[in-house]
Amino acid sequence: MNLKIIQLEEMHLNDCFDLDQKSLKGLWTKDQWQRELTDPKRICLGTIDIETKKLLGLCSAWLVTDELHITSIAVHPIHKRKGIGKVLISDLIKRAKALSTKHIILEVKDRNEEAKSFYKSMGFKIVGHRSNFYKDGSDALILTKGLFKK
């Protein structure tokens, strides 16, 4: 499988929404995805299969002064554990450094062991907790990754 990272745009709206439904069980509405794809302060990256042009993974983040806040990361269920998430986060880290971002922050469900392990492998550290953060009432852990040594 040959993969390519692309900047997602409004023309990818349906693909982003479909992947959200399959991988994240409808985290965002189509209107939320449209805002995500059109706001210049947001970075939306996608991993596509070069041959089929299918969107296999995506991540989005908000640029807030010197911080990049990852708001969503999804990989198509049949393509999980193939390194797609790692490629996306690695590319996002590279872009964040180019923008002189000091650190990256994200929330993850406190019971999502697979995601916690993934983020730990990418150098993220748990720095906090948000109670009742998700729609289903579950709590979130706050993770961060510094980008420049002090």
Automatic annotation (TrEMBL):
Residues 3-148 form the N-acetyltransferase domain. Keywords: Acyltransferase, Cytoplasm, Transferase. GO terms for molecular function: protein-N-terminal-alanine acetyltransferase activity. Its EC number is 2.3.1.266. InterPro entries: AcTrfase_RimI/Ard1 (IPR006464), Acyl_CoA_acyltransferase (IPR016181), GNAT_dom (IPR000182), YpeA/RimI_acetyltransf (IPR050680). It catalyses: N-terminal L-alanyl-[ribosomal protein bS18] + acetyl-CoA = N-terminal N(alpha)-acetyl-L-alanyl-[ribosomal protein bS18] + CoA + H(+). It is found in: Cytoplasm. SUPFAM superfamilies: Acyl-CoA N-acyltransferases (Nat). GO terms for cellular component: cytoplasm. The keyword Ribonucleoprotein does not apply. Belongs to the acetyltransferase family. RimI subfamily. PANTHER family: ACETYLTRANSFERASE (PTHR43420), ACETYLTRANSFERASE YPEA (PTHR43420:SF44). Acetylates the N-terminal alanine of ribosomal protein bS18. This is [Ribosomal protein bS18]-alanine N-acetyltransferase. It comes from Prochlorococcus marinus XMU1408. The lineage of its organism: Bacteria, Bacillati, Cyanobacteriota, Cyanophyceae, Synechococcales. The gene is rimI.
